[in-house]
Structures are given as structure tokens and as C-alpha cells.
Amino acid sequence: MDFGALAAGLGISALPQSTLAMLGQVTLVSRPLTAPMISRTIGMAWLADRTLPPAASAFLQHVLARWPRLAVNLASSNDPKG
Predict the structure, then answer these.
(1) Which of 1, 3, 8, 35 is closest to 19 using CA atoms?
(2) How far apart, in whole angstroms, are the C-alpha atoms of residue 26 and residue 42?
(3) How far is CA 59 from the centre of its chain?
């Protein structure tokens, strides 16, 4: 859910506590989720035929240094055979 819809009272959202400050003066009710039973897989994407800008390349290198097993997944995802 986007912040605008949340701020307009059009729904409910699970979001990091740190993002509440980004909503500024909007009055929200917040409750911590204790032991949530959900997970979400996220990924990184970029155009294959372009060189990454320096900041994006540095971020990618930071992520790969923190989670080296992702490098294996990136190598296999660049393989046109699958």
C-alpha cells in the first residue's frame, strides 16, 4: 500500500517501524507484529545491456559482500539457458 492511500484512511499496511516517520504529520495507529508468520522474497533488477552507474554498482557489491550466496544466484540468472 502506498503512503498516500494509508494517510487517506483507505487501508492498512504492514511496514517497517522506521517508515512511520516518513509520513510526517499523519496520525496513525501502530501496533508491532510479534512473531509474524509471513515472509517475502525480494530481488534486484537492472538492465542487462547497460553498465550500472557507480552508486548502483557499489550498492550491488555491498549486497554481494554481505550475502555471498546471492552471487551464485546472479550467475545462474544471467545464463540464457535458465
Answers:
(1) 3
(2) 28
(3) 13
**Angle at 77 (CA atoms; ends 80, 56), nearest 5 degrees:** 120
- For residue 49 the three cell numbers come to 545491456
Instruction: Summarize pLDDT for 31-43 with one digit per residue, the tens.
Output: 888 887 777 777 7
Question: Buried (b) or exposed (e) across 6-42, using 16+ Cβ within 10 A?
Answer: beeeeeeeeeeeeeeeeeeeeeeeeeeeeeeeeeeee
CA distances from 63 to 11, 26, 44, 60, 70 (A): 33, 33, 10, 5, 8
For the entire predicted model, the pTM comes to 0.44
